[in-house]
Design a protein that fits this description.
The chain has 585 residues and is an alpha/beta fold. 64% of the residues lie in helices and 10% in strands. The strands form 2 sheets. The chain has a 6-stranded mixed beta sheet with strand order 6-7-8-3-9-10, with helices on both faces. A 4-stranded antiparallel beta sheet has the order 2-1-4-5, covered by helices on one side.
Length: 585
Amino acid sequence: MKELSYLNKYLNKYKTRIILGLLITIIARIFAIVTPNLIGDSITTLENFYISKSLSTELVKEKLLFNIIVIIGSAILAGIFTFIMRQMLINVSRYIEFDLKNEIYSKYQELSSEFYKINRVGDLMNRVSEDVSKVRMYIGPAIMYTINTVTLFVIVITYMIVVAPKLALYTLAPLPFLSILIYFISVRINIKSTIVQEFLSKLTTFTQESFSGVKIIKTYTVENDINHKLDNLASTCRDKNMSLAKIQAWFFPLMILLIGLSNVLVVFIGGKEYMNGLIELGVLAEFIIYVNMLTWPVATVGWVSSIIQQAEASQRRINEFLKNKSIYSLDKGSITEIKGQIEFKDVEFVYKDTNIIALNKVSFKLDSNSSLAIMGDVGAGKSTILELICGINNPTKGEIFVDNINLKKHNLHNLRKSIGYVPQNTFLFSDTIENNILFGKNNAKKHEIISAAKSAFIEYDIKKFDKKYKTMLGERGVNLSGGQKQRISISRALIKNPKILILDDGLSSVDSETEEIILTNISNMQRNFTLIMTTNRVSTAKNCDKIMILENGKITDIGSHEKLLKSSVYYQEIFKSQSAKKEII
């Protein structure tokens, strides 16, 4: 239950409903136990009428009619209160499920990109769906049936002991053995539930990746291999589920056996006490009904125990990343107007999963409304710098300042609203072109959308579509070319009117002529933003105020185009190579 204690804050949030549900449960159980008592009373009345002839026929009819009316009334009231109880407690589980999913989703957005490099999307999706569903079963049905069972046990067992202590003792004797069996089986269920959830995550991840990479699978004609792998994974997952089911299958037979034993004891011990004149026949009938009333609650003990163990395993998986802390806070920190000055001081970054040193003591300062191009070979650390500025990753060492305020002290939401970011791997949503552009500014006017599209030199392409801006895109923009996707992504960044514009190799999929047009359009815009871009084209970098050369995570040179042509061997070689290919305009 240690992992499930995380949910206490939610239980406390809805404590009024839970307490009300508890009170209604007690009332419903009180009405429920009226029936056995009246049935016992009716049998005793009939016994006295036929054996002792001490009651008149009219009095017996009157008493039986009264008992029947009260039994029907109490049954109706018990049903009504049970319905209200379910509405109270089951609805609480749905509210908490909603809150927990929102918390998980918010946490997903807060965590750094490093987290997503370690964890697979399919596994994360499984935790927010399957694992949360398992937890909801603990909050709803498990708590409801636990309250119901405890209430019924306390009321019924107390009454049984008061009426016939010896008979009650024999009747309840099998229950301690049941508790011991439940404990040992529950431990096994907890272990196997964790394994099942892990394999379900693997299956979800494999399926999700197969759907995402279906083009590659078909192109390489490896459908049969993928099907074989899926079959093996699904078979293993089935075997793990079957192993769990075999353990769970022990619950009900054992409980039915022990309840049956209780019935035998009631009849045997109760029969002897009746024959000895210690109890009435009605009491014996009452006890048989009470034992059978306890059958389902006792049976639910095993079911509830299984639910709790599975919920514990699922909540442990959820807690693994809910307790993962980022040094940046999305909602806390100072909210100031961003001007765009950026400074790195001895910044280092190491990828935890591979221990690769991406940046090593990187220091530079960029004034607001100026421009910087970062160049370097693959793996030099270019994209890492951009991700650190956005707060997507956290530096291992060193400090980053935006407008002379440490990035840790910034309100990350406020900072990111001032950043227009075009990632290296363009991502478009399965929505219209218009809504993809509006993602950067959802309240933008039509003329702003068109202006952003023109600046990114994509408006002409959009007009060629039948539905123009209302054209629906496939998953990740599958029905567009690489260059078109990149230019829509640029439009999305420009429509924000950002204070910091970041292009992570954002022009790599367009030709030199289109690139020049886009850069000219950006230059012609009001220069009220800081521009940072990564590129391997001198034609892209040469007009920037500064060009930074990165090699193996270190800055080897920084300066203007003219300065680097004199001081940087790396830049000179690229310039000569691209000049020979006429790539530099």
